[in-house]
Design a protein that fits this description.
Layout lengths: L17 H12 L4 H7 L10 E2 L4 E3 L7 E3 L7 E2 L9 H12 L1 E4 L17 E3 L10 E7 L2 E5 L18 H9 L1 E5 L33 E8 H16 L1 E5 L4 E2 L13 E4 H30 L2 E5 L4 H5 L12 E2 L14 E4 L3 E2 L11 H13 L11 H5 L5 H9 L7 H18 L9 E2 L3 E5 L3 H7 L11 H4 L1 H5 L12
Parallel strand pairs: 11-13
Antiparallel strand pairs: 1-4, 2-3, 5-6, 7-8, 7-10, 8-9, 10-18, 10-19, 11-12, 14-19, 15-16, 16-17
Helix pairs in contact: 3-4, 3-6, 5-6, 5-11, 8-11
């Protein structure tokens, strides 16, 4: 294979096998259009190796080790076929679709209109408030747990522009993963505090969650990063200041309240909720991208949200270790919303919150978010500038004018006001953010090979159930040639 020209420091192209190249070409060059995929996209929850209300007990040896029993019901089904994990190329394509590198953002925001709020010019397949790269993708499969982190350097303004770029999909998957665990997390249906009898922290719908053969794509969001960045943007360009709801007074930023600086109070709980909503928007796009990718590939995609993400992350180790994230112990009297406060996964994902291992003080936290713009190598730094190094988005002369413009830089008073606000919140409430959990993992998508026998038994249609698309029916012939076609009738 050949490769398009890439910038200095870029990796050497890897050689794809004919089967790998054909698989990637299948989704980039064939398959349904986006409108065709939208017309048929469905949640297909039943995968190979799954069960539904059989009334029989089984041991979840792969996760919680609990013996569980779902009551018998009218949709009783036990898959006659064992689990069939996704292939490497299937997972790589879905991970890339979820939030993989796709080039360089346009950054088409006026300098006078808060261009400096962008924390990165590296493009991904999903939009994000301030392009903060604050949502990471964890991948849970039979091999354990990995963090998909392909990085922020870009080889071209449009990364996948033709067949010569297909190798990047597998390169990002292979080189851009961090191993978290060699086994699945110990959460499953019926996981609950000891001694309870009618509690299911993973939700009634999630009987087959985290089951062998499945790949659970779990977006984990650093809400604290968005929170701090929103605070800086609000102080510089919005004129809003945080207001303590218990006193209706400014949250530590009194000295900057005057015309032309900070002028209107913004209640702290509403501000925290706004940061959370911006996070949710990005995660929703990640999950929808996964669903559409699976629709094009003929795989089942099961969007999930009815579980306790605090439990999954590790807030209650006496119940389940989960993913092993650390949590801050807060005094109940200083935690008005009674929220869990996650500090991240030490050394892997340090959340933008304080106090924490990486950000012990208000100043450390705020200056970290400022440095994402201006530290050496960043996109608004004059030294080793990201845009110059990666080839965009702006022409050299335009970029230089941006870097020289005063409104592309955060004034010292804004940084100091943000620091004092965060310090106030930590002193009073014990943490910043104070009203929302700084890390969330509430919406995700589990992917599997659909068990077509279930739908043939229970769903309407002609020769095949209505949800059996051409790409699903041909999936094993197309994606796993030489293996038995598990969707062939009478096999």
């Amino acid at each position: 294979m050949t490769s398009t020209a890439v910038r200095g420091g870029s990796p050497e192209p890897i050689t794809l096998t004919p089967a790998e190249h054909a698989a990637i070409a299948r989704v980039f060059e064939g398959g349904p259009s986006i409108f065709g995929a939208l017309s048929t996209v469905r949640t297909r929850r039943m995968g190979l190796g799954y069960r539904s209300e059989t009334g029989e007990s089984e041991s979840f040896d792969w996760s919680s080790h609990m013996v569980v029993r779902q009551r018998e019901g009218p949709l009783a089904f036990e898959s006659p076929t064992g689990p069939r994990p996704l292939s490497e190329v299937e997972e790589a394509l879905i991970a890339w679709a979820a939030l993989g590198p796709n080039g360089i953002v346009t950054a088409d925001i006026p300098v006078q209109g808060d261009l400096s709020s962008l924390l990165s010019w590296a493009g991904r397949t999903v939009p994000a408030s301030s392009n903060d790269q604050g949502v990471e993708l964890f991948i849970v499969n039979d091999d354990g747990v990995h963090l998909y982190r392909p990085g922020t350097e870009r080889m071209a303004p449009v990364e996948i522009s033709g067949p010569d770029d297909y190798w990047k999909i597998l390169h990002w998957y292979r080189a851009g993963r961090v191993r978290i665990s060699d086994k699945r997390p110990d959460v499953a249906w019926a996981t609950a505090p000891p001694g309870t009898h009618n509690v299911n922290t993973m939700g009634a719908l999630q009987y087959n969650a985290n089951r062998p053969g499945s790949t659970w794509f779990l977006p984990v969001g650093d809400v604290g990063l968005e929170w701090v960045n929103l605070l800086l943007s609000s102080y510089q360009f919005g004129g809003f200041y945080l207001q303590d709801p218990q006193t209706d007074k400014p949250a530590g930023c009194e000295q900057w309240i005057r015309p032309g600086f900070l002028e209107v109070g913004f209640p702290l709980p509403i501000f925290d909720e706004l940061a959370l909503m911006q996070h949710v928007t990005e995660v929703a796009c990640v999950v929808q991208n996964i669903r559409l990718a699976c629709e094009a590939m003929g795989l089942g995609a099961w969007a999930m949200g009815g579980y306790s993400d605090d439990l999954l992350l590790g807030a209650y180790p006496d119940v389940a270790r989960g993913l092993g994230f650390s949590f801050l112990e807060r005094e109940p009297s200083r935690n008005p919303s009674k929220t869990a406060t996650c500090q991240g996964l030490p050394g892997v994902l340090d959340a933008a919150m304080t106090p924490s291992r990486k950000f012990p003080t208000a100043e450390a936290l705020v200056r970290h978010v400022v440095d994402l713009r201006y530290a050496r190598g960043a996109h608004l730094s004059p030294i080793d500038n990201w845009g110059e190094r990666n080839g965009g988005p702006f022409r050299d002369d335009v970029r230089e004018r941006i870097l020289e413009h005063p409104r592309a830089h955060i004034p010292d008073w804004v940084v100091e006001a943000a620091i004092e606000t965060v310090r106030y919140l930590v002193d009073k409430y014990g943490a910043a953010p104070a009203y929302v959990n700084p890390v969330r993992a509430k919406f995700s998508c589990q992917v599997h090979h659909t068990d077509l026998d279930y739908y043939r038994r229970y769903h309407t249609g002609g020769e095949e159930p209505y949800l059996a698309t051409p790409q699903l029916l041909s999936h094993f012939r197309d994606w796993h040639p030489g293996e038995p076609d598990l969707y062939e009738r009478g096999r």
